[in-house]
Structure formats: C-alpha cells, structure tokens
Amino acid sequence: MKKRWEYLRLLEISLHAIRSAIDCFNRVYDPYKIETCLILMTNAWELLGKAILVKTRGKKSIQKDRHGNTLPAEQIVTKLRSFEFLDENQEHCLQQVISLRNHASHHLLPAIPDEVLHHLFYFGCKFYKDLVVKQFPRQPNIPKQNFLSISFDNLTTYAEKVQSLVGRMKRSKQDMQLVWLLERGVCFDGVKYISQDQFERQYKNKRKVLPHLQVGKFLKDSEMIRVVLIQAPKNFTADITLRKGKPTESALPVAIKKTDLEKDYPYLTVEMASKLGKSQNYVAYTLKKLNYKEDSRYHQSVRSSKSGTVNRYSESALNDLKKFLDGNPGFNPYANEP
Length: 338
Known about the structure:
about 350 residues; mainly alpha; 2 domains; two-stranded antiparallel ribbon; 13 helices; about 50% helix; elongated
C-alpha cells in the first residue's frame, strides 16, 4: 500500500483532535476539561493549518528550521490569514484560543466566564468545519453531528463579559490577566506576544481602557452567540427574531414572550376585510404591499393540515391598517407603486 500523502494524515489526526475537544467541553465531572479542550482545539487547528499549507504550498511552508522542526500553532494561523484561508476576525478568535492554551500549558489559567469560552469554542468549531468543507470537500469524516448544550444559568455574551472584565481589571489581578491573555492573542504579530508587564504599563493610567484595546475592536466586529433554552407548553411555537439594535448594544439581549395565537393574532384575512369594509383580495394585497407579513407585531403564519399555511393578524395590525387607509383613501394596492 502506498504511503498516504502527508497532508491527509495531518487532516485525519486534526479531525480526531477536534472531536476530542468537543467531547471534553461537554463533560460534566472533569475539573481539567477547559485546559484539555484548549489544548486539543489548538492542536486540531495547528494540524489542519499544516494540512492545508502542505497541500497548497508544499512541505517547506510549515518548516521552522532546517532541523525538521515545524511552526507552532500561532504562526500557522497567521500564515492561514496571510494566504487568505482565514479573515481577520477568524484569526483573532483563534489566536485567543491559542493564547489561553499556551498559558494553560505552562501556568494556571485565571477564571474564564462561560460566555467567553462558549464564544471562542463555538466559533473555533464553526470556522474549523467551514474551512474543512471548503478545502477538503470529499473528506468523508467532516463532523456533521449536533451536540446538545445544557445551560441553567442566565448567560449573556462574550461582548458583555469582556466589557465587565475590562471594567474590573484594575481591581482584580485575575481579570487583568485574562484580559491580557485575550488581548495578546488578538495582537499577535506573527512572531511574538505582548508581555503582561507591557500590557499593564500600556493601559495603567488610561481612564477608559476598552476603546484602546484590540480585543475591544474584535468584540464590535464579531457576531455574538447566546445560549437560550426555551421551555413551552404543548402546541406553542417558538419564533426567533433577530433585529438591528442600537450601536451601543453588544450584549445580545433576548426577550421571550409566550404567545397565544388565537388571542394575540385573532384575525384572519377575511375577518380583517370584513371589519375594514373591503374585499378580502384588496386587504391581502394591501398587507403584502405594506410588508405587514414581515413584522411579527402584526402577523404570524400558522401551519394547517388542510390549507398549508394560515395567516393571522393582531389587533395592532387592524388598527394601524385602518389608520393608514383612512389617511390614504385613494390607495391602490394593485398598482406598481403605493
């Protein structure tokens, strides 16, 4: 049997490592699971990066010196960015994982909020899978499983926790150390890290620290995740809506409202038409023209075994539509423009 290509062997072991990292993160009784997960995820990314570089750039692209030593994980990720296999945001996320792993391998990790770990591990896995699918589309062992995450705490997000850490770091040595570990990952220049002494001297006398941190820019440019478990009675439907928030909102607030469709959205289209004194066809076209179906305050669709989907409308939809028609008596929903 011919010797397998080196990049395929690197990819195979990398896939083993990422699965082991996911397994570690979901363990319940393992006091060393965070450190183990950081080590395994870093290993997975280092080997994946080397597989891609060997495949596309040759074996020399991963060599550190002429003695056969290869580049460490942080430099491999930097190379993936320089060759446009990763974007800046992805690189900064992974460099934070590697920074924490390097510290865990040689010293004691400070306490890390779950939201920070969830963010880094989730996107570390997501970016990993996306890159494997793109670079090795025929690889049969790409992770395809879904993993259940159970949370009983009211968690927020990476952005909210980093803001809190920065606010407390002048009073807490542990928080100062964790902010430094995240910052040094984002600030890695491809060769060396910023030391903790350099970091503390740089921001010691600043009244507001976060605007001066590169990790502050990272949290503004990154998508956020939040673990939300929804518990509902039988026959309830969960509708998840993302809306554009204020520029100052980075904590991804979640509002959960229990809805009784028949009470909160009492009107069918034909009932709306009857109350407005219009034909059902006229009202249907008007609702579509004014984008009422795009607004959850006004509209909910309900699946029906008989007709497929039934459209229901709220009291607000009826009142607002009546005001609009009263103010625009000549409105023609059939025209190309309102």
